[in-house]
Specification:
The chain is of the alpha/beta class and about 475 residues long. It has 3 domains: about 60 residues, no CATH class; about 325 residues, 3-Layer(aba) Sandwich (Rossmann fold), CATH 3.40.50; about 80 residues, no CATH class. The strands form 4 sheets. Strands 2-13-12-11-10-8-9-7-6 form a 9-stranded mixed beta sheet, sandwiched between helices. The termini are far apart. One of its GO terms (molecular function) is monoacylglycerol lipase activity.
């Protein structure tokens, strides 16, 4: 009906019968326009309608429908019905499609519609980097400091605080931030706001060493391959919340660390599911992309390298008696310079390229034994589309790849005057879906491994496909971590 009414309005306007013409006729200029319109009836309406038509065509071109890619034989999930008290099985992908309409139903948000003046991936990325929405997504954290075996310190920020929400069996999301980020990031706070304030879940942000105002207390930072700090944090969270179901989400470099951890843990992983957002996957490929592109080499890489240098020089005294040349670090410009002069030396890699190759989580995707969702924008100028391990994600029956044509790096902004992240809704829907699969506390539920059925054949296939070094003495076949004395 609305379409017919729109056509009728256009027809009235072209014929000079629309009420707008009466308004114009009451002014001298309007009268002249009306006379001109009567002589050439199509010219003025077309000139007036042309901008709206161009905007509509531009919007159709920039809209980005959600595209899903997954294994032909996905794992089945054992679900619990609280009403009947019985367990039943459902195909993992069918379950996610049913519980996450913003991933499959275009009428419910399965189309990313970027802000009209921010359709470029570069603009989305720049906006995400420089606009922090300080007056929105206000989260009251409770910080806890944890000491690492080498004398280092990491922090975890709980939301809500234990004063507001005492220890119980509430499902909890563990969040990993991007490079030099922290719990203050808007992409983290927007998700926490939905999950904690609207749905009553608990969240905890893992802030890496020296990030988010965490003091550096040892001569070690963090990197894409170092998962021991996350492993320690997960054990602490499990000890603190023995009855809570856990899952995790990582952003950018944090998602690379998370996927490495998931692959290393295999079927012993404490998380019941995970989400990867804006993951670079292949650090070597990302490095090459930075070096060969004009904006990558002159903007993105120096910006990320500068952020790392700021963290380093804030704690430079910790590295005075190490093999790191502080003045050489100062002369560095790009992120590759920093990784070559600092990161690889801290973590005992022989070359920076060896670090990039061995830290890339794409080689551990096939070893993940928990449902996981990977969200990427194909116009991401940092975590580029050509580095997405499509075959590995589709080859894993636990995997689900979600892509949009636009969105930039951790952007996905929509709305003209007031911007919101489109990705917050599907990400929160996925978290809720996984938590609701079996809402019972840990002691009343089967082990996490038994939640997923019909995976024997798929695991055999994965064992044959995987090109990573595998520990065959481990039941789950988790990948072996490179052994280094740090």
């Amino acid at each position: 009906m609305s379409f017919n009414m729109d056509l009728e309005t256009v027809q009235q306007f072209v014929l000079g019968q629309h009420p707008t013409w009466e308004v114009l006729n009451n002014t001298e200029t309007g009268a002249k326009i009306l006379v001109y319109h009567q002589e050439k009836p199509l010219v003025i309406p077309l000139l007036i309608l042309l901008p709206f038509l161009l905007i509509a065509l531009f919007r159709m071109y920039t809209n980005s429908p959600v595209v899903l890619s997954y294994n032909k034989k996905p794992v089945s999930i054992n679900l619990y019905d609280p009403k009947t008290g019985k367990m039943y099985q459902e195909n993992y992908i069918d379950y996610i499609k049913r519980k996450c309409p913003s991933l499959v139903d275009r009428s419910k948000g399965a189309v990313f519609k970027p802000t009209l003046w921010m359709t470029s991936g570069h603009l989305q990325t720049a906006y995400a980097a420089y606009i922090n929405f300080t007056t929105r997504y206000l989260i009251d954290y409770q910080r806890e400091l944890l000491s690492t075996p080498d004398g280092g310190t990491v922090s975890i920020d709980w939301a809500p605080s234990f004063e507001k929400k005492p220890v119980d069996d509430t499902p909890t999301l563990v969040i990993l931030h991007g490079l030099t980020g922290g719990s203050y990031e808007s992409y983290i706070r927007s998700l926490i706001e939905v999950l904690t304030q609207e749905h009553g879940y608990r969240c905890v942000v893992f802030n890496a060493r020296a990030c988010a105002d965490t003091d550096l207390t040892s001569a070690q930072l963090y990197c894409g391959s170092w998962t021991d700090d996350l492993r320690m944090v997960v054990k602490h969270i499990r000890k603190t919340l023995p009855e809570a179901k856990l899952m995790s989400i990582g952003f950018s470099l944090g998602s690379n660390i998370l996927m490495n951890y998931m692959g290393e843990e295999g079927d012993q992983c404490e998380f019941m599911g995970a989400i990867s957002v804006g993951n670079p996957y292949d650090l070597m490929g990302t490095c090459y992309n930075m070096e060969r592109g004009f904006l990558g080499h002159n903007l993105y890489s120096p910006a990320m390298g500068g952020n790392l240098k700021r963290i380093f020089f804030k704690h430079a005294k910790m590295f005075e008696n190490t093999d790191i040349d502080i003045e050489d670090v100062r002369r560095g410009v790009t992120i590759r310079d920093f990784d070559d002069r600092v990161t690889r030396k801290i973590f005992k890699y022989r070359t920076v390229h060896e670090y990039y190759r061995m830290a890339s989580c794409c080689q551990r995707i096939l070893d993940i034994k928990r449902p996981f969702l990977c969200l990427s924008a194909l116009d991401d100028p940092i975590a580029i589309a050509e580095c997405i391990p499509r075959d590995e994600i589709k080859g894993n029956p636990f995997g689900l790849l979600v892509t949009t044509a636009r969105g930039g790096h951790l952007g996905w902004f929509e709305g003209f005057f007031s911007q919101d992240r489109w990705c917050t809704k599907p990400l929160s829907e996925y978290c809720i879906a996984m938590f609701e699969a079996d809402p019972r506390p840990v002691s009343d539920s089967p082990s996490i491994k038994s939640l997923y059925a019909n995976i024997g054949a798929q695991e055999d296939d994965l064992a044959n496909q995987s090109h990573t070094v595998r520990d065959l003495s481990t039941a789950g076949g988790a990948t072996i971590k490179p052994v280094r004395s740090l």
